């Protein structure tokens, strides 16, 4: 008799996870009728715990986002301000180089194409800057704050590339204007030197 009970107890532990010692009719009830009920209850419990874990994770992500929101917004604001200042400074340099060219009556063969290149690349840089400024607001209320940061980074990279091209076109124009000014100055000094 003890061997028979031991087998049923082992059967009860294996199926339901419940130790029922010495009560063979309960063991058989659990193993035959209650198995599906226990499995359903266990499955429902696992689903409930999974749902709770997902809610806890969302709450933790939201708390972390709120914790870092101000810092991320400040960084984005500084990058936006600095980018705008750089663009304004480059535009001012371009304008001053063109005024210098006009006021000193310099002559460069491809001046119009250089100015057109500066204007085209300036327009592209301005567009990329405006796109970045549009992406520059951060909110934890969005579906995916990480994606908005990733989009901002991509916009920033595109803006940096456009600004480098704009800067290079201004440098090319400036170099040509400098060489034309130096050529004009050396030509006038040779002319003035011959008259003395």
Question: Keywords for this structure?
Answer:
single chain; 196 residues; Butyryl-CoA Dehydrogenase, subunit A, domain 3; 5 helices; disordered N terminus
Short description:
The protein is mainly alpha-helical.
CA-atom Rg in angstroms: 38 Å
Low-confidence stretches: 1-12, 25-29
Question: Architecture of the domain at 69-186 in CATH?
Answer: Up-down Bundle
CATH topology of the domain at 69-186: Butyryl-CoA Dehydrogenase, subunit A, domain 3
Helix-strand sequence? HHHHH
- The CATH class label of the domain at 69-186 is Mainly Alpha
Strand content: under 5%
Bulk shape: rod-shaped
Number-wise, the strands total 0
Largest beta-sheet details: none
Distance between the termini: 136 Å
Work out the helicity level.
over 70%
Secondary structural class: mainly alpha
Mean pLDDT: 81
- What's the number of helices? 5
Element layout with pairings:
Blueprint: H1 2-16, H2 24-32, H3 34-103, H4 111-134, H5 145-195
Helix pairs in contact: 1-2, 3-4, 3-5, 4-5
Describe this protein's structure.
Helix 1 runs parallel beside helix 2 and helix 3 packs antiparallel against helix 4. The protein contains five helices and no strands. Helix content is 86%, strand content 0%. The protein has a domain of 118 residues: Up-down Bundle (Butyryl-CoA Dehydrogenase, subunit A, domain 3), CATH 1.20.140. It is mainly α and 196 residues long. The N terminus is likely disordered.
């Amino acid at each position: 008799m003890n061997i028979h009970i031991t087998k049923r107890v082992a059967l009860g532990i294996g199926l339901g996870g419940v130790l029922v010692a010495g009560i063979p009719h309960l063991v058989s009830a659990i193993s035959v009728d209650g198995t599906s009920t226990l499995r359903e209850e266990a499955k429902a419990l696992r689903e409930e715990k999974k749902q709770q874990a997902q809610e806890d994770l969302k709450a933790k992500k939201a708390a972390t986002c709120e914790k870092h929101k101000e810092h991320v917004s400040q960084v984005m604001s500084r990058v936006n301000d600095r980018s705008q200042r750089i663009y304004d400074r480059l535009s001012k340099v371009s304008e001053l180089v063109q005024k210098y060219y006009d006021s000193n009556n310099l002559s460069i063969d491809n001046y119009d194409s250089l100015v057109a290149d500066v204007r085209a690349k300036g327009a592209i840089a301005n567009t990329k800057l405006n796109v970045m400024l549009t992406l520059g607001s951060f909110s934890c209320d969005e579906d995916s704050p990480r994606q908005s940061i990733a989009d901002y980074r991509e916009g920033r990279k595109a803006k940096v590339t456009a600004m480098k091209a704009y800067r290079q076109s201004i440098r090319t124009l400036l170099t040509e204007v400098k060489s034309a000014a130096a050529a004009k100055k050396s030509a006038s000094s040779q002319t003035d030197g011959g008259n003395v």
